[in-house]
Amino acid sequence: HKDLLDVTYLSDEEILFILDNAKRFQEVNLRAVKKVPTLKGKTVTLFFSEPSTRTKLSFDTAAKRLSADTFALGKSGSSVQKGESLKDTALTLQAMHPDIIVIRDSSSGAAQFLAERLNCSVVNAGDGWHAHPTQALLDAFSLREAWNGEFAGKTLLILGDINHSRVARSNIHWMTRFGINVRICSPKTLLPRYLDNFPVEIYSDLNKAVQGADAVMCLRLQLERQAAGLLPDLGDYSRRYCLTRRHLSEAKPNAKILHPGPMNRGLEISSEIADCADSLVLNQVSAGVATRMAVLYLYGTRNDDMTLNPQVGE
Ligand code: CP
């Protein structure tokens, strides 16, 4: 494929190829000189019309560590503020001949809309409620490291605002394909309809959902995507769904904790859990740079025969 729109478009082999390359790039990120010439002469444009800290900075860092030139455009400070459409903005960016456009937008389907209209590669950095493929890939990388390469037979609980979560949707796709037993726990009002199509167990009681889990992925309560009249009572939500040490005592010993960030501490995850020794939250951030280097390598070189990057070395 020319574009990365979601993990659904990646074969198992392509996912493992990205994870294997990310492992090699992780070693580059630990070197004194954190740069390889892989994408020298290529241009990566970052077009983020929704706020981002982790995804935007890690794509920028990843591209620069591959020696690509990067340019960033946001809603604020660009002609989007004067009413220029997504399509006209993207065509304008493409007329400057980038090799890859990385896009984040609040509309589900925005990345696909552009991918169908642009010649360059489009990488989805989060589109509305729909998909966040590189978050799912970096989560796969983090879990692969923590579980010594094993996915099949593990039990992972995804907790919180599933309905508005592009992270949950993309993760459920690859996790169920790779044999992870996925559990979902959220209030009934925050459960999406698409779950009928997936082999996931659904809970509304966190005390039951967490029993025997190998990992818990907490999600942010996405208040900005909820209609004003439908907002949950935050006190009630945190009493029922904020992950604490008491809940975790029911999970497997040393169960891993994930959160894509940004976290609402005390609402969906307690600070003692976010900062505990088994928390992978900051590992996920580091994995984000290595995984996005692997994604940019794959799409920036159109590496169809999937060779590991020879420029990383042993
Ligand atoms: N996880 C994630 O997408 O974080 P940002 O919104 O900060 O990029």
From TrEMBL:
Domain Aspartate/ornithine carbamoyltransferase Asp/Orn-binding: 153-298
Pathway membership, UniProt: Pyrimidine metabolism; UMP biosynthesis via de novo pathway; (S)-dihydroorotate from bicarbonate: step 2/3
Domain Aspartate/ornithine carbamoyltransferase carbamoyl-P binding: from-to ranges: 2-145
Enzyme Commission number(s) of this protein: 2.1.3.2
PROSITE patterns named among the record's database cross-references: CARBAMOYLTRANSFERASE
Entry keywords, A to Z: Pyrimidine biosynthesis, Transferase
Binding site for carbamoyl phosphate: R54, T55, R104, H132, Q135, G261, P262
Catalyzed reactions per annotation: carbamoyl phosphate + L-aspartate = N-carbamoyl-L-aspartate + phosphate + H(+)
SUPFAM superfamilies linked: Aspartate/ornithine carbamoyltransferase
GO MF annotation, one: aspartate carbamoyltransferase activity
UniProt keyword NAD present: no
InterPro entries assigned to the protein according to its UniProt record, in alphabetical order: Asp/Orn_carbamoyltranf_P-bd, Asp/Orn_carbamoylTrfase, Asp/Orn_carbamoylTrfase_sf, Asp_carbamoyltransf, Asp_carbamoyltransf_Asp/Orn-bd
Sequence positions that bind L-aspartate: K82, R166, R220
A Pfam family this chain is assigned to: OTCace_N
Keyword field contains Transmembrane helix: no
HAMAP family according to UniProt: Asp_carb_tr
Function: Catalyzes the condensation of carbamoyl phosphate and aspartate to form carbamoyl aspartate and inorganic phosphate, the committed step in the de novo pyrimidine nucleotide biosynthesis pathway.
Subunit structure: Heterododecamer (2C3:3R2) of six catalytic PyrB chains organized as two trimers (C3), and six regulatory PyrI chains organized as three dimers (R2).
Protein family per UniProt: Belongs to the aspartate/ornithine carbamoyltransferase superfamily. ATCase family.
Name of the protein: Aspartate carbamoyltransferase
Protein species of origin: Taurinivorans muris
Lineage: Bacteria, Pseudomonadati, Thermodesulfobacteriota, Desulfovibrionia, Desulfovibrionales
